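quick q for whoever's on today - can somebody do inverse folding on this one?? i tried earlier but teh output was garbage lol. tokens:
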């Protein structure tokens, strides 16, 4: 029945932790996948991709060539995240929780918590628009930037990007 599912009671976890052995502070992450969710363009579909009611965790984009978007990675595809939690993902370069390039991304009633990236620990958008509605951006960390300075613990921007936030919190 549409609308009947309740992700609070029936959790779906998408994990990059292949062996189930992750420890705090990114210990045992070498076996983890670089991206937990990858959204790719399909020219035959003219719709927004939707990810609803899932937890995305344990992505580890740690090195060439995959260093961005450990939790969710999208390029050229508009994306809507609804009632999702992106937690404990780490990217060596940009966007620990979320990386979006050349896309419009809406984050609706989501939590981005405890993600790490060189720039944009929670999310990084490049030549993209990010809209946050009723979402919490918590305890994310930027560790370093390509210019030697960490930027955007919660959200980082590159190129021609912008962020709009409504009823959302940053901590």
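ok took a stab at it. sequence:
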């Amino acid at each position: 029945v549409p609308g009947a599912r309740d992700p609070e009671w029936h959790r779906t976890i998408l994990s990059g932790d292949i062996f189930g052995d992750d420890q705090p502070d990114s210990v045992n992450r070498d076996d983890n996948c670089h991206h937990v969710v990858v959204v790719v363009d399909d020219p035959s579909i003219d719709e927004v991709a939707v990810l609803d009611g899932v937890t995305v965790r344990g992505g580890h984009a740690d090195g060439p060539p995959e260093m961005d978007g450990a939790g969710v990675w999208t390029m050229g595809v508009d994306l809507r995240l609804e009632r999702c939690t992106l937690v404990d993902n780490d990217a060596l370069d940009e966007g620990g929780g979320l990386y979006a390039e050349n896309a419009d991304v809406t984050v609706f009633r989501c939590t981005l918590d405890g993600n790490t990236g060189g720039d944009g620990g929670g999310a990084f958008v490049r030549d993209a628009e990010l809209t946050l509605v009723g979402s919490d951006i918590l305890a994310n960390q930027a560790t370093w930037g390509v210019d030697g300075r960490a930027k955007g613990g919660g959200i980082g921007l590159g190129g021609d990007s912008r962020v709009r936030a409504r009823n959302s919190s940053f901590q």
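fwiw The mean pLDDT is 90. also Residues 108 and 133 are 5 Å apart (CA to CA). so keep that in mind when u check it
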